[in-house]
Specification:
CATH architecture: 3-Layer(aba) Sandwich
Number of strands: 7
Helix content: 10-25%
CATH class: Alpha Beta
Strand content: 15-25%
Radius of gyration: 16 Å
CATH superfamily: SMI1/KNR4-like
Largest sheet: 7 strands, antiparallel
Distance between the termini: 28 Å
Order of helices and strands: EEHHEEHEEEH
Low-confidence stretches: none
Structural class: alpha+beta
């Protein structure tokens, strides 16, 4: 995806409503192993690899509305983690956008661990995004050009 960006880290995308818009991408510098050790749990391999490449990012920054999807840096993960006292073991908030949060939510019963945490949803009722790992979620998100593909009605 980064190869498609122009010199200003911008890209023209096709929106869900059929219009086009210019968006920007902002990738942070890599996290260090020392920074990753600050996190309260082990990370899935794919997600750890992302943080070691880019310690967070702002994706699909709409240049007109300045809306975006953010993948948190280690420090931002810790800040958002501090907002709740009762996170289930191994769960971490890793991103936000569309007024909701993206959470790592490992489960013994599932291969995937990406959870979409909507306002008012309890930890007891995780809304997993398919059976996806982080790298798969990220790839689908890029193919969907920053759209909430997990909300699409697939009963065509």
């Amino acid at each position: 995806m980064k190869k498609q960006l122009n010199k200003e880290s911008q890209l023209t995308i096709l929106c869900e409503d059929g219009t086009t818009t210019q968006v920007k991408f902002e990738f942070n510098k890599p996290a260090t192993e020392k920074e990753l050790k600050k996190l309260p749990c082990d990370l899935p391999t794919e997600y750890k690899a992302f943080l070691l490449l880019h310690n967070g990012a702002r994706l699909y920054v709409d240049l007109e509305e300045r809306s975006s999807f953010e993948l948190f840096s280690v420090d931002e993960i810790l800040l958002h983690y501090s907002y709740y006292d009762d996170w289930p073991k191994g769960w971490l908030p890793i991103g936000a956008g569309f007024d909701e949060s993206l959470v790592l939510a490992p489960s013994k019963d599932r291969r995937g661990y990406i959870f979409w945490m909507q306002t008012g949803v309890s930890f007891d009722e995780p809304e997993y995004i398919g059976n996806l790992k982080f790298d798969e979620w990220f790839n689908y998100f890029c193919v969907a050009q920053g759209a909430q593909f997990w909300e699409w009605d697939r009963g065509w």
